[in-house]
Amino acid sequence: MNGEKPLRRRLLITGTAGLVATGALTGTARASGAVEPDVDSTSEWNARPPRGNVTVLGYRPDRIIVHHTVSANTSDLSRDRAHAHAHWVQDLHMDDNGWIDTGYHFAVSRGGWITEGRHGSLRTLTGGTSFVLGAHTSGQNDRAVGIACEGSYHAGAVPPQAQWEVLVILCAYVCERYGIAPARMYGHKDYNTGTLCPGVLHDMLPRLREEVAARLG
Fold first, then answer.
1. Residue 111 in contact with residue 79, Cβ under 8 Å?
2. How many CA atoms lie within 13 A of 194 on its CB side?
3. Could you give the dihedral angle defined by the CA atoms of residues 88, 91, 96 and 101, in that order, rounded to the nearest 10 degrees?
4. DSSP β-bridge partners for residue 116
5. Where is the N-acetylmuramoyl-L-alanine amidase domain (predicted)?
6. Is 30 exposed, middle or buried (0-12, 13-18, 19+ CB in 10 A)?
7. Do the Cβ atoms of 211 and 168 come closer than 8 Å?
8. CA 196 to CA 156: how far, in whole Å?
9. What is the Cα–Cα distance from 172 to 210, expressed in whole angstroms?
10. What is the C-alpha separation between 72 and 82, in angstroms, rounded?
11. Pairing state of beta strands 106-108 and 114-116?
């Protein structure tokens, strides 16, 4: 891996941190104000092939569910680290959980790099009319896009600014492509009382909804 992704696009993000310099924070502005983010596909981070057929659902999801991966809160914000994290998640889900592939559709690293999770997630998102069956939230996998944030956000930890800004950008793009209202973004524990996931990110959901709505105009 090359460590730093060439900047395919640049974006002046108004109202946030100015001209964002990392690859995952770049994008092409759409008329609505949403941005098509740079996403490293499964082929770009050299994911393992799925253990079985990934199911493509011929309709649009109606919500987003936010997670955290409970990985280390690393200070390594590089693209290489984002790829290593994507491998760690996939290995955990396939080898420990026995799933066919990564359960999440997308992950956002602490450095603001986006990786595709389950194979086919990026292609169907771009198309905007279908999505792949995930494995991230019991009872919601056939209706929700699962987005995971690298890190463990319990006990007062908060996401780095780059991660937060990219989460907003990705959620806005998902909402636009699938016609999801920003109000329909939830945390894992909204559907599973046995988990604390996504930690403090759950408390930040009102802010996330507000910032995504503002980005969508």
1. yes
2. 2
3. 120
4. 106
5. 49-199
6. middle
7. yes
8. 13
9. 11
10. 12
11. antiparallel
Express each pLDDT in 95-139 by its tens digit.
Answer: 999 999 999 999 999 999 999 999 999 999 999 999 999 999 999
pLDDT at 160 over 50: yes
The residue written with tokens 């802010």 in the block is 207
**Residue 89: which residues within 8 A CB-CB, separation 6 or more?**
69, 71, 102, 104, 107, 117, 148
Residue closest to 145 by CA, chosen among 132, 157, 154, 158? 132
* Residue type, position 215, single letter: R
Q: 3-class secondary structure for the chain?
A: CCCCCCCCCCCEECCCCEECCCHHHCEEECCCCCEEECEECCCCCCCCCCCCCCCEECCCCCEEEEEECCCCCCCCCCHHHHHHHHHHHHHHHHHHCCCCCCCCCEEECCCCCEEECCCCHHHHHHHCCCEECCCCCCCCCCCEEEEEECCCCCCCCCCCHHHHHHHHHHHHHHHHHHCCCHHHEEEHHHCCCCCCCCCHHHHCHHHHHHHHHHHHC
CB 118 within 8 A of CB 132: yes
pTM: 0.88
Q: Count of CB atoms within 10 A of residue 190's CB?
A: 16
The size of the chain, in residues, is 217
* Alpha carbons 91 and 23: distance in angstroms, whole number: 25
What do you get for the CA distance between the two ends of the chain, in Å? 37
- Report residue 215 as tokens: 């980005």
